[in-house]
Amino acid sequence: MIPAKFDYVRPSSLAEALSALASGGEDANVIAGGQSLLPLLRLRFSYPSVLVDVGGLDALRGVRDLGSELEVGALTTHHELTRDPLIAAPCGLRAPAGGTIAHRAGRHRGRSGGARAHADPAGDLPAVVAALDATLVATGPGGERPITPGDFFADYLTTSLAPGEVLTAIRVPKLDGWGYRYEKFHVTAQAWATVGVAVVVRRSDGHVAQARVALTNMGSVPVRAHSVEAAAARGEAKAPPPPAPPAPPAHRRSRGPRCTGNPQTACPFHGSNLSAWQLSLTTRSPSLFPPSRPGTSCLTLSGSLRACREPA
User: Of the candidates 57, 82, 41, 70, which has an alpha carbon nearest to the alpha carbon of residue 166?
Assistant: First the structure.
């Protein structure tokens, strides 16, 4: 679909952006990477009178060390945050969670602030910022206004940003020594999360001293699981089991594709021929059948399921 008509402004400073928003009134909107807003514009779920593009404001990009916390500029991309060394240790949850967002191209365009300001509960970052107990910084005509995650996310696709305000930064407390994990279930690799959980844990004397748990897509806003946090804080902190050792080469070979059919016919999927045979399966759409003609080659997929190709 074609978006509704709107005016477009690309300011060169934050002051110009705030002035443009003030002139546009309640119908003005902000865009940066566009990964969340553009689909809404195309579907006419959003129809601003003025679109203020802040994507060129480099002052709102990057990570800064403020001592006890880190300040992440709202225009920092997801890709940049997955590789920034300042984020890795003190705020480790942010990098792996950002690496699960959409696809690589989307992570290069999507911005850290835009994902929060969009306020989709199925997005990964609202739950992450809730688990980190971060502070979201809004800037408007009256200056900066710090907002807690519980106050910032008001409802589905709705935040407490006032007309004329812009989300300019996220301040994350340093959690050196804390354990962290983000897991989500989604039907396809690039789909929104069906459900997700962000966890950070502080251990002391073999027990969980403090835990923060936030849930993705379990309500109209990210949900802090306070009862889970209280139960975890009384539990024993056990180290995760070591990873399973790699299987020996002989076992890996036994689990790979096996050739059946005419023993006089060379196996077509040994070595470099495997990719060509798999491509042939895809492009020629062979049927699944037992060997019936001399020269028939079959690939065992799993159990008794085999994909076979008869000779031309």
Answer: 57
Q: Would you give the DSSP letter of residue 289?
A: -
For residue 104 the two structure tokens come to 């690589």
* Residues near 46 by beta carbon (within 8 Å), at least 6 away in sequence: 29, 37, 40
- Domain containing 223 equals 179-232
- Residue pointed to by tokens 């689909």: 39
Neighbours of 118 (CB within 10 A): 18
- Which two three-digit tokens encode residue 162? 């006032």
- The phi, psi pair for 115, rounded to 5°, reads -65, -30
- Per the CB < 8 A criterion, the answer to whether 95 and 101 are in contact is no
- Phi and psi of 57, rounded to 5°? -90, 90
d(CA 296, CA 98) in angstroms, rounded, equals 47
CATH number of the domain to which 116 belongs: 3.30.465.10
Q: Of 173, 199, 220, which one is at a domain's C-terminal end? A: 173
Measured distance CA(256)–CA(301) in Å, rounded: 9
The pLDDT tens digits along the chain (312 residues) read 688 899 999 999 999 999 999 999 888 999 998 888 888 888 888 889 999 999 999 999 999 999 999 999 999 998 998 888 888 778 878 777 877 787 778 888 889 999 889 999 988 999 999 999 999 999 999 999 999 999 999 999 999 999 999 999 999 999 988 999 999 988 877 778 899 999 999 998 888 999 999 999 999 999 999 999 999 887 887 766 666 676 565 554 444 444 444 444 444 434 333 333 333 333 333 333 344 456 655 555 444 444 555 555
Residues 33 and 130 in one domain: yes
d(C-alpha 41, C-alpha 50), whole Å: 12
Domain termination residue (choose one: 216, 232, 248):
232
pTM for this predicted structure: 0.73
| 152 and 272 co-located in one domain | no
In a domain, 249, yes or no: no
